[in-house]
């Protein structure tokens, strides 16, 4: 069954590239990818992605509002969620919350293929980004927690002499603290 383009409502053309079935909108140059198909074309070393970028470059859409919310071509009722594809926050893609399919507007595939050469590189960048954000967000809280711990340890050390375990032979030399 042919799917309708979520941007133009025209029928999309189904093609197969290196065993991957894709739906292309000849009206706007967008492409629909089923769940996890993006992982087969998003890296610079994947031949199917190179072929798809070449095919999509032939389409020159005009007068299309890319800010408009669109519905899933497969589920019809689900509104696609717009989110950043990578931690670099340089490209947004549309994903269906129901079937996990992905809609790429013209130029988005070539842009995301330029971001990271491999999945390993993308994950390393993501981990570094998350660590940086966590440090900024949690840094003051960590400092405050360390200060409170130091105060508690000082207080416990001052009270160690009233702890019974301090006086019992074989126990810790300065109590339970």
Q: What class do helices, strands and sheet pairing give? A: alpha+beta
Helix content class: 25-40%
Indicate the proportion of strand residues: 5-15%
Q: Please give the order of strands in the largest beta sheet.
A: 1-2-3-6-5-4
Uncertain residue ranges: none
Order of helices and strands: EEEHEEEHH
Q: Ends: how far apart?
A: 71 Å
Extended strand count: 6
Describe this structure in words.
- There is one protein chain.
- Strands 1-2-3-6-5-4 form a six-stranded antiparallel beta sheet, covered by helices on one side.
- It has three helices and six strands.
- The N and C termini lie far apart (71 Å).
- Strand 5 and strand 6 (102-104) form a beta hairpin.
- The model has no long low-confidence stretch (mean pLDDT 82).
- It has helices at 47-56, 108-115, 119-158, and strands at residues 13-17, 20-24, 31-33, 81-84, 92-95, 102-104.
- The chain is α+β, with helices and mostly antiparallel strands and 177 residues long.
């Amino acid at each position: 069954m042919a799917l309708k383009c979520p941007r133009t409502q025209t029928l999309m053309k189904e093609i197969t590239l290196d065993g991957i079935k894709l739906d292309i909108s000849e009206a706007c140059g967008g492409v629909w990818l089923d769940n996890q198909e993006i992982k087969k074309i998003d890296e610079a070393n994947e031949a199917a992605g190179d072929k798809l970028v070449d095919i999509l470059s032939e389409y020159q859409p005009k007068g299309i509002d890319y800010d408009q919310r669109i519905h899933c071509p497969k589920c019809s009722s689900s509104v696609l969620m717009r989110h950043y594809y990578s931690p670099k926050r340089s490209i947004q893609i549309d994903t269906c919350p129901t079937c996990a399919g992905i809609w790429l507007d013209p130029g988005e595939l070539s842009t995301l293929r330029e971001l990271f050469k491999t999945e390993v590189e993308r994950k390393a960048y993501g981990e570094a980004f998350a660590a940086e954000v966590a440090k900024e967000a949690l840094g003051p809280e960590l400092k405050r927690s360390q200060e409170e711990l130091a105060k508690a340890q000082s207080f416990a050390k001052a009270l160690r002499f009233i702890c019974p375990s301090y006086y019992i032979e074989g126990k810790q030399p300065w109590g339970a603290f």
